[in-house]
Write a structure and sequence with these properties.
The chain is of the alpha/beta class. The protein has 11 helices and 7 strands.
Length: about 325
């Protein structure tokens, strides 16, 4: 326990027989319950999880592989049933430093934040330790997640090393959160709708411990980017239209419409010019006006969004 709060750790696992034992062995003593979610593994993951004889370990088996998000949700639900006050998530591949766990748990246990997450990018080690392609992919998705979620102060969106309060977890509609690799990104979008206080905490990146990654960036980035586009519009509707009105929705709408119209008209005029047609000055002025006005409306909308969410730290 930490600060009188019961702490549970959810460990989503799929074919992690080699490293899950090491992961569990490193989980600190203050953790009361370890929920290992075996996401339809084809190896001995479940047996390896209990081989160490840790009485805190409970294995939840999923019959069908649903993805890391679905496994985390299964673990969340079991932790709530078990009475967890602070529920954390640690990967089963030993890539999350257990020494950072208390840093995440304490602010949630004290009620300072609703959701604490690790941030590997703030340390000077990140660029040296994280593979370049994954670092750059993470940076791109982190930027998109800032816009989609409204948490402009949060980075390293792909980390799954988190802690959440029981109260906030109970409010979320976990069935709506994306079940795949984009779960951490979509989770932030849903948390923002509930005005959850979210804060980053520095964490040491861990690589080269025998982990293997099946992530294909050329597939993952487009998929999560589209997920974030949908999540962005869903958040605007839920938070700024349905639950409480905010004029930033008009700024975003006008900004996107004007920018799209300016780009479309500019492309048409460019094609006509290539075909030998003359472009008139009024047309050039109209394209410039649409693009400039569209960008200004969009930037103002982002600023309004930042102001609206500045207290959610």
């Amino acid at each position: 326990m930490v600060g009188g709060k019961r702490v549970a750790v959810v460990v989503p696992a799929h074919d992690e027989e080699r490293l899950i034992g090491t992961t569990i062995a490193g989980i600190p003593e203050f953790v009361d319950r370890i929920v290992v979610v075996d996401d339809a593994s084809t190896d001995g993951t479940a047996a390896a999880a209990t081989a160490g004889g840790d009485p805190r370990v409970e294995v939840v088996r999923r019959e069908r592989n649903g993805g890391v998000g679905a496994a985390i949700v299964s673990g969340y639900r079991r932790a709530l049933e078990d009475g967890g006050d602070v529920v954390c998530v640690m990967a089963a591949d030993n890539q999350m430093d257990p020494a950072d766990l208390r840093t995440l748990v304490e602010p949630v246990a004290r009620g300072e934040v609703d959701y604490a997450k690790a941030n590997r990018l703030v340390t000077g080690e990140a660029w040296k330790l994280i593979p370049r392609t994954r670092y750059l992919g993470n940076a791109i998705l982190s930027l998109l997640t800032k816009i989609a979620s409204g948490y402009w102060h949060v980075a390293d969106s792909q980390t799954g090393y988190t802690a959440i309060s029981r109260e906030m977890l109970a409010q979320l509609d976990l069935d709506r959160v994306y079940p795949g690799y984009g779960f951490p990104n979509d989770m932030l979008v849903h948390l923002n709708v509930w005005n959850a206080r979210v804060r980053d905490f520095p964490s040491r990146p861990v690589y080269g411990v025998g982990e293997t990654s099946g992530i294909k960036l050329r597939r993952v980035i487009p998929r999560i980017s589209w997920l974030l586009v949908k999540g962005f519009f869903w958040r605007l509707r839920e938070k700024y239209v349905i639950r409480d009105f905010h004029p930033l929705v008009f700024f975003y709408a006008l900004g996107l419409l004007m920018t799209a119209a300016g780009l479309l008209l500019g492309a048409i005029e460019a094609i006509l010019r290539l075909q030998g047609n003359e472009i008139t000055t009024p047309t050039i002025v109209l394209v410039a006006l649409l693009l400039i006005s569209g960008s200004q409306f969009t930037l103002f909308a982002m600023w309004f969004d930042m102001e609206s969410n500045k207290d959610l730290r």
